[in-house]
Specification:
Radius of gyration: 22 Å
CATH topology of the largest domain: Rossmann fold
Helix content: 25-40%
Structural class: alpha/beta
CATH class of the largest domain: Alpha Beta
Distance between the termini: 44 Å
Number of helices: 8
Number of domains: 2
CATH architecture of the largest domain: 3-Layer(aba) Sandwich
Oligomer: single chain
């Protein structure tokens, strides 16, 4: 079964279970879309950071042997919209299954649901594996409870994942140190130097401008 998998710009996690095995029947699609670059006006640094990271990630996937379809913002054949992208790539790869990772943004989540409802092939949504929690874990935990206190959920997660516990009790004797964290910083410890990655992105800035993307 040929499968098309969509990777969004904030889902660049090489440790995701998707990428642990190379399968010649799976094609990953990534795209720098007008849709995402222009639905609101973004800062140029944000768009450059996203596109640079996406291009680097696609190269890593290809190096590992994965099949990747990548569309740059200025590519003539770039569909530029998510609906058009999915239908175009399904036809191009002759896929009989479409998969995606659950978006962190409600707008995209709803759009992908609509797209999938219009497809006549098998579809599947996967967890991004970005977080300790699953998407519905909070709702399940508080179901039927009269009070919604974040502290109780926080403690459950500590216990579930055995985080900062000693003999199943909170390390340091307390579940949180919020009161201590309200104290004013007095200059120590010192603030570390900012980590700066120097890279000339002038060509990419030009591509974005020539594609008609307006930025701050």
């Amino acid at each position: 079964m040929k499968t098309l998998r969509l990777i969004l710009g904030d889902q660049l996690n090489i440790k995701h279970s998707w990428f642990q095995k190379v399968d010649g029947n799976i094609t990953y699609v990534m795209t720098e879309m007008q849709q995402e670059a222009t639905y609101v006006k973004h800062h140029i640094q944000k768009i450059v950071a996203f596109f640079t990271a996406m291009r680097s990630f696609s190269e890593v996937l290809e190096t590992k042997g994965h099949k990747v379809l990548y569309f740059k913002i200025g590519d003539a054949k770039n569909p530029q919209g998510l609906q058009q992208l999915v239908t175009h790539c399904i036809a191009k790869t002759n896929a009989s299954k479409f998969e995606y990772q659950l978006p962190d943004e409600y707008r995209l989540d709803e759009q992908l649901k609509d797209i999938c409802s219009s497809l006549s092939l098998a579809v599947n949504a996967h967890d991004t594996e970005h977080f300790y929690t699953e998407r519905d874990e909070l709702a399940k935990f508080f179901k039927g409870k009269k009070t919604l206190i974040m502290e109780s959920f926080y403690r459950m997660m500590r216990r579930k994942h055995d985080i900062m516990l000693v003999n199943k009790q909170p390390e340091g004797g307390k579940w949180n140190f919020d009161h201590s964290n309200r104290k004013k910083w007095k200059g120590t410890p010192s603030i570390p130097e900012a980590l700066v990655h120097k890279r000339d992105v002038t060509p990419l800035v030009k591509e974005i401008s020539e594609a008609g993307v307006e930025t701050f």
